[in-house]
Amino acid sequence: MREYIPVLNRTKLFAGVGEAEISAMLVCLQAKQYSYKKGEYVFRQGEYLNNITVLVEGGLHVQSDDYWGNRSIINVITIGEMFGEAYAAPGSGALLNDVVAVEDSTVIFFDVRRILTVCSSACKFHSLVVQNLFFAISEKNRMLVQKLGHMAKRSTREKLISYLSEESKRQSSPTFTIPFNRQQLADFLSVDRSAMSNELCKMRDEGLLIFEKNKFTLL
Amino acid sequence: MREYIPVLNRTKLFAGVGEAEISAMLVCLQAKQYSYKKGEYVFRQGEYLNNITVLVEGGLHVQSDDYWGNRSIINVITIGEMFGEAYAAPGSGALLNDVVAVEDSTVIFFDVRRILTVCSSACKFHSLVVQNLFFAISEKNRMLVQKLGHMAKRSTREKLISYLSEESKRQSSPTFTIPFNRQQLADFLSVDRSAMSNELCKMRDEGLLIFEKNKFTLL
DNA sequence: ATAATTCGGTTGTTTTTACAACAGAAATGA
DNA sequence: TCATTTCTGTTGTAAAAACAACCGAATTAT
After folding, report:
1. B32-36 β-sheet, strand order
2. A177-195: per-residue pLDDT in tens?
3. Which residues in chain A are closer than 8 Å to B148, comparing Cβ atoms?
4. Which of A13, B101, B123, B185 could cross-link B105 (Cys pair, CB 3.0–4.6 Å)?
């Protein structure tokens, strides 16, 4: 687990905490490390969480499948990001989504109660970490609102433009890659893949953008 | 402002803080009170916030209007709830939505930096309030994910069922009222009002539910 | 290297939604 | 009280999306 301390050091959760302190906190917060093969579930809808988790290797999707097999991708977790933090509060209820490894992944679990309860001993970073938690979840909150903005658009084209524009802005470049293949992008925007593919090609033919695989350029 | 201390006392932000301490914190956190007539804007898209705010009277909608006049209602703020907390972190960027009074409303502003910076003097409740902030924003986060769940549904009918079921569950009764008229519900679910109205009546005729104004019963 | 699977694009059909326009009922205001 | 505005439901039409089925290319596995 120590090998991942440099990764943890760069996370929002441990911002302002040095490597030495993180090392101490791994013990104090009862950190545990698990690995998952591509396709395996880290959590399933309906579970109750007692951990905040940080992804230190690989990639995850937060998603849910309905009865008819329609999948909805809520969020993408990349290295250094947290998940499950919205379920840290007592009485948060069951997890609303599945969390799935989209590539071989490694995750570190931290005991929630130990983060929230200030212990008497060595680690005096709890209150900083709680503030970090707050900032991190704020950012996630804003991201969810942006996603709502995409999904609120009435047509597939508008959804695509809304999402791709934001991604271009976020990556500060008209050319950028997205973390999805076509089916995943459709699941992320909650539209039909073939219809979306069709719309993307129309937009390309109209000179709005070009793309190759998951690399897009807005014109 | 003191008249609202009992209201503040029941909020998630001040959970575990007594009325006397809240009274002290009103000074310490430089609380300011503002009132808005129905229809007035509390905040506008693009503004930068330096305050966390609590609604103590009336009702607010967090919404945004696009260029063509399509409105999207992101969230409803009821008495005792906070808003703007996702913009408390430094570098959060500009507000993504408008916040509008849907009835005559009163709001109390708290200086964000004073909440996040532990002051040396009297108020030793900062760290508790930061934890409360974290819990409150967690709840909002889960709510946004639920809303994403409604909006991810492909048809108007499914969106309605998803939303109404959740509302029924939340209010622990098959009969419940919603905080929207028809146009607002359509804006909340991002569908056309007349199409939605039509679908609602079909569902009623099929015996799935009954309704009168904003009071619904699932059968 | 070859077979099998996944992925992305295309097309035609069916279903659904958006849009527009209107009318009666209800609520609001003068 | 009466006039005005808002709200809800209804209908028909046009536009868009979902769905299904298919194909070739690319990727992955054996």
Report:
1. B32-36, B105-111, B51-57, B82-83
2. 999 999 999 999 999 999 9
3. 72, 74, 144, 147-148, 151
4. B101
